[in-house]
Amino acid sequence: MFKYVNRPVKRVDALAKVTGKALYAEDISFPGMLYGAVLRAEHPHAKILKINTAKAKRIKGVRAVITADDIPGSKLVGVVKLDQPVFAWERVRYIGDGIAAVAAEDMDTARKALSAIEVDYEVLPGVFDPEEALKDDAPKVHEDGNVIVYHKVRKGDVEKGFKEADLVIEREYKTQFIEHSYIEPEAVVARPVDYGGIEIWGCIQNAFTTQKNVARVLGLDMAKVRIIQTPLGGSFGGKDDVMTVMAARAALLALKTGRPVKLVNTREESMRESYKRHPYVLRYKLGLKRDGTIVALQAYMAADGGAYASTTPFVTWRSTVQAAGPYRVPHVKVDTYGVYTNNPYTGAMRGFGSPQANFAIESLMDEAANELGMDPIEFRLKNGLRDGDETATGQKLTRHRVSLHEVIEKVRDAINWEELRKNPGGDGKIRRGVGIACSFRGASLGAEGVDIAGVEVKIDSDASVSIEAGLTEMGQGIKTVLAQVVAEELGVPIERVTLHPYDTSRVPDSGPTVASRATIVGGGAAQAACWKLREVILGALQEEDGAERAWFEDGVYRTEKNKYSFEEAVGIAIRRGKGLNAVGWFRTPDIHWDEEKGIGSPYFTYVYGAQAAYVEVDTETGKVRVLRVAAAHEVGRAINPAMARGQIYGGVAMALGYGLLEEFEVSEGIPLVKNFDDYSIPSSLDVPEVIPIIVENPDPDGPFGAKSLGEPTNELLAPAIANAIFHATGKRLRELPMNLEMVLLGRKLRRKRK
Ligand code: MOS
Fold it and tell me: Which ligand 1 atom sits closest to the C-alpha of 240?
């Protein structure tokens, strides 16, 4: 029986946030601080002929104007590939490229200086569509061609599979650019420090990635670059590369002037510069037997990576290995391209390649069921992965329990599927329908990266406990999860556990907080640290009591002679001169991926989810209202069931925008969206009744059996809505978002560039 884990413990960061006491990056200032501003490109693709900063430098109050020429180290940064300039020189590749930056005594002066910088361009033809970019004669965004990455899956023989099929269907789906829409725009403060380095405060999702890249740009040791993470006002995968570039610019200005420098993006700058979710075009071919058995699946995907690689190689890899969904398919062939264009660049966003692939595969499954005259749930249950089955990449699922059927059945019952399929309700111009989508999702980074994390746990002499962790709190609740794990494993009251800010000079490198991995790797590392500390404490008790044996049970430290509370036990350990400080590490179990052959075990475990949407369509206006959503997610074990439900509500609300409302429209590389007056995200009035269902099947490898939840909740609703719209109206929509014109006309009305 757990005392803290698996319980709805109150969030440890809640009070500071709701009382306004939390210090965000923009709140931070230092004496003598300067204000920075960045000049951005005027064309999506152009040669830079000349940059003249002389006039700007002469303006009173301007302390520095810098360009790529002022960079002492690497002019390029990147998560996977070093291809993104801190300041563009010679060429701009998208409209958000930075050309120069200014530091001045106040913001107005900084802005004035920006407008005094003269840049001469020679406009180049651009390429704005990934499939156009793949053609031989397309303008090259980078010298080595427009293919950022290519991934494949090869299993069995699809041609043979299609021959054996009674029915073959081919479909094309498309997804759009969307904005992360974090409420807090990007902000950093950099200040030079006396050890010859730089300290940077900022809302940086992956501080170690930023540290590495900033050190590269400055030509400094990583140890001389200290990143202190401030609370994040939302991120959703979005405060990675864009923050690295911003931190590097602020650091350059600070070192140039010898003074602290603050850089804050306005919303317009944020929307112009920051990366988006990848638009995809996905073409599927599916072979079926009359009885509903899937025999072959072929998929082609092209993802618009925009001007820089960012995390495109990893994002497209996830789409590739999960392309066939959670189904048994003997013959599989998938080809995926991540492609450079002169559009805004694209990168990590909650789901990381699965929202796009799931929209296609889960729409396709519905279309297949319809062609066969089968119920969509019956079709999924028939083909869905079960214990011991082999995935489309040839991985045998034997290490964990496969919960696909369980989540589908729970959602079916919660939404009242049988009844609503027969009698959906609605009348006249108002039609109603119900649809479902399900998925499996590889937990953690998988074979796309080194998946290891460290967490340090320290016990002070008053028996209070600190956690020093490099796992990012971005609203998902990892701080609370870590506090729960440590309180449980040490037997310390949770009120006595404190988490300090994530500071790269103080915490072990945990890798990036992405891929819904924080609970698994961070929780696992915290657990390992506590086990080390327990060994030390128990050793001291054995000495103290002259005991044969000492052990920890039900939150109490015991020897055969005595039992001690955490506080008593710590007192004894300290008196006996024991060091009560430990770093624990967690590494995900063995996984492998053969990029050449396109086969392997990409993830050590998977989570399973299903969401059903009950919708109402106004056939005269095209307005879709989602009335009710049932969402079942298998999480291994919920460390905090209340926060797990919160993830489901949040993921569903966010996916509602992806499905129905949001598009970051870009015309020939120019964003048509400048601010939120042009970009609708769901408000509380749009959010339907949500029935969250948490399914627990503890994983043998996760801490307390926990797996992931953050992203899975955000990758299912769009196809569930598309399938519900089909049920309601008989109209199949294969392109996102399913806004008024898509529903009414079956196509988008494109705006023109202003
Ligand atoms: Mo996340 S989208 O893997 O930062």
Answer: 4
